[in-house]
């Protein structure tokens, strides 16, 4: 079983240098990417539960991968590319998660990325691409879409109280200084790159030579609900779940 | 006439719109000419139409003339400096030979 | 690198001329409204706007959305809009009805625009059909030829590199320059100023750059040697332009482009170098040559640093070669980095650029781009066609030629649209105005109670209307400086302020003195004593002291030296706590002037004696002897030498020192006498000014008991733009001083005697009273009340009450426009007062926002109109001005000022981000001279958003000034043809000129060289 788990986890929770392949593949997917963003952490996390204690080399590679992709995210040229890098950066961290947790938590780690991917798709459909040089000023041009995009970006970079935020809190351990240092670096780069992307694509004046089509009300409501889960539910769910399952959280 | 010593120099006369007066005088000073005289409130006709002469609310419109006497070498310096200006603005420059008696006044 | 004198001058000249398109920027302490495209007024309006758009990256017309709002509000009439649309179509031979329907739908109803991403979601089969016909081949080689042409002219080298390689050289360069400018041009705001500034901008920068490590880190490698060899800025410019490979015949265009990048800072430097007596310019000189030298050197070093990442050397011919060899690559890169790539290709293009594999995708790229563009245009046309209610078959049946024509029409229309809206907007307002103007010249009534002279400023209109309704008041409009240009020296300050339109230099100086001085004679002594008194307690070297005193007679910044912090924002506060003062307007006699100079020189000599000869308490007699010796009025050295126990030689040396270092010498003294002689006005001058003013407004008889001379100013807190709300005719200052001076002159018996000889008979019981209208609170302050004879006190009382009443009514109107809570005049009065004192208020008053008309003529024309405080009103009586001299004065002076104000508002309203200064909320005052947005940016020019916009919509009606002149047409034509500036403004359509001929009782409008009636019917002229 452990062998199977290892195989799945290596595929789903990418580590350098395999991460290059995963990143490339994700780049080629379009509509399926959202599914991928959902399934990869889910599956990976489920199977991670079967691995007793990963060798420490793996943990170091995981930290390295995460930091590397977080750093690359800063120079991402499009929302799509940025999303992929942050995803790889986030998911490779899951190796660090203390084992013995229930797998469906993987769902919650996936949620912000699903939301991001959906936003990105909506942008790509309307504008043909989410390239940062191309698309600007969605906040004013298509306010509902801009709002959702903002929420999704903030959710992904670990703004309280998103699930990513909670995950970070889980991973940061006061005892291990080195690990905390790297994780802080990762979080820092996420924040920096996220704000950069945000200021590019959402803020600013809308372009005169682009047509901005906003979301319809129904679509945006669905996404708002999803955002709620990303933000509120993460925390609440954790608390409720840990109570129900009798844990005391690792925080 | 008594024994007057006369020296030949060049007289440069520049007619321009009032708003450019400072530019021209600045140019002359940088070129190192010994001095200059300004005559205000000219009228005249050129390729741009007639210019009224009397004092208006708006001093930039009126024509002025700047007269300066200098060495021959300085003339080419001044003319080169004026070249870009005259390419874009209305104005004329006249160079003539002139004789002066008090040389020390015109040499720096 | 050494340059010849001639070459240096050539470069200097070239830069000066190239910089003329950059508008001046006046320091904000005295905000001057001016046309940002002032340097382009020799071009017709439309062309100038187009060129301005390129130079300043700004829009010249409002957006369609904004115009539609005006349409809905009725400020643009639909019929007039259609009319101009028809003209547009007629010019292009597209007169069929369907095109009219198409374009009018686009303008007024549809929510469509041609955009880059339309082709993505177009489901319409029609579009796909016609798209095939609309495909236009892209020839990369041809396209890049145009690009190559632009390079070195309107496109700098780093512009090209930024646009094709995504670098940020331009941005970095701008930041560096902005910082350098802010540091050098600071006027006392920084605690720790930049060193070496007295050497000039370039030289100071050079000193710092040679030592600066930061500069080295920022990639300015290889600069040290260049810096060493280029001592003069001209040398640096020649070197840099040569190194960049720009040939001399392109220099002037290139320089203009470089200068326009930070036109706020360059505008300020331009102004400074043009204002020779500006204190800070004397202290820290800077001009455009300096600026350009620094900028070009920094650009060069940034380019050199980037060189290693580029496939060419950053030099003109090398880049041109690269462009020629790789046209496809260059075009694709340009498309990508400017965000114009067909979106579905963006990802691919990015990857190809990263891997440098552009050639492999280039053919496919251009194919797809061609298709995408055609499809976008096609779907735009199809959607528009449908919305216009036209049949699709018609569209489908068009052949290729017709479709291409249609495409071209739409592209032309995109460019023209703004102008069409503008013309319709103006026509609507003209129609309304002309309909409301009353033609009848009324007969003279019996003696009115009082006349009131207001400034032509639009804010006076409301007040005048409300005042006239309260009693027998005749109001007049005149430029707010009342025709008297003054150079004013305020109490306690040692520098001049020019109180007149910036087009004029005042020739007379007016001093402000303590009120208590009884004897006329003592006035100037007191000024001098005050200065000397302060000198005693300052630790300055004798040289500075002397410069300071000497400079007093140049009326330069003595106030600065002694009261460095007391300037600027504190000036007004000082004004509120000033001791009672009076103005000295009469000329001192020559003897008096000489006496004063004598006193000062003796004081200087006394100090010199102390410092050089170590003697104190030297008797007055000796000081005078020394003075006479220095001024070559005496020759007897030996006698004085003996008295002072010095050898003749020692004395001679000392006298030389006096002449050389302390300026006690003949020539300099002559200049000082000239300067002092500028104080005050002679009787002739006083008569001249009063006569001209009264004549120009047509007030020559029938004077009331009072003539109120009302200047204006505004009061607000925490407002860097405060002086924008003040009187433009007074150079951006308050009008109080001019009003006082004018009233003093007009009240003088001798002046009135002379005026009587000239035909202006002012009755003995007429009193001129100076006042100031605070346009933020609508209060009117009366001055010099203690000078008023008892006989007139009851009249003053009545006038005060009426003015207060009028003020309240005016406040009510304004209050409602500001959107405040005001139910009645009383409440409104309180509200507007609060506005003026509230330091968080970003809009203390609307000011001149909304100005659209300038009316020159009698008050009867507009008496019954409510112009809502949006028109300039200048009084003029055509009957007493047969030769047109007064009209000349009005047209060449106040009208030009009006045009400046109007154009400033126009451009700040149509593109507030680029022509205006953006939102006040982000403003940071820099160096005490202006504002930047954020902590480092270009100096912001123009008006802030809060002045011309309400929220994001324009509050101001952006139209070109609608000028109405009441005078015979022949006279107006003559005057215009005689004055170059006005001719230019009219012929190039910077203003809309309407003439009301009172003899024929007809309106004429100038339109493209012809005179038509305002409703466009041709009139035989």
Describe the structure.
- The complex is a heterotrimer of chains A (about 250), B (about 110) and C (about 1000).
- By secondary structure, chain A is mainly alpha-helical.
- Chain A has eleven helices and no strands.
- In chain A, helix 5 runs antiparallel to helix 6 (about 105-125), helix 5 (about 80-90) runs antiparallel to helix 10 (about 175-200) and helix 6 (about 105-125) runs antiparallel to helix 8.
- The radius of gyration of chain A is 18 Å and the shape is globular.
- The two termini of chain A are about 30 Å apart.
- The model of chain A has no long low-confidence stretch (mean pLDDT about 80).
- The model of chain B has no long low-confidence stretch (mean pLDDT about 80).
- Chain B has one domain (about 15-105): Alpha-Beta Plaits, CATH 3.30.70.
- By secondary structure, chain B is α+β, with helices and mostly antiparallel strands.
- Chain B has a four-stranded antiparallel sheet with strand order 2-5-1-6.
- In chain B, a hairpin with a 2-residue loop joins strand 3 and strand 4.
- Chain B has three helices and six strands, in the order E-H-E-E-E-E-H-E-H.
- In chain B, helix 1 (about 20-30) runs antiparallel to helix 2.
- Chain C has a domain at about 515-580 and about 590-675.
- Chain C is about 50% helix and about 10% strand.
- Chain C contains 43 helices and 19 strands.
- In chain C, a hairpin with a 7-residue loop joins strand 3 and strand 4 (about 495-500).
- The two termini of chain C are about 65 Å apart.
- Chains in contact: A-C, B-C.
Name a few traits of the molecule:
heterotrimer, A: 251 residues, mainly alpha, 11 helices, B: 108 residues, alpha+beta, Alpha-Beta Plaits, four-stranded antiparallel sheet, 38% strand
What is the chain-wise order of helices and strands of chain B? EHEEEEHEH
Largest interface: B-C, 30 and 33 residues
What amount of the residues of chain B lies in strands?
Answer: 35-45%
Structural class of chain B: alpha+beta
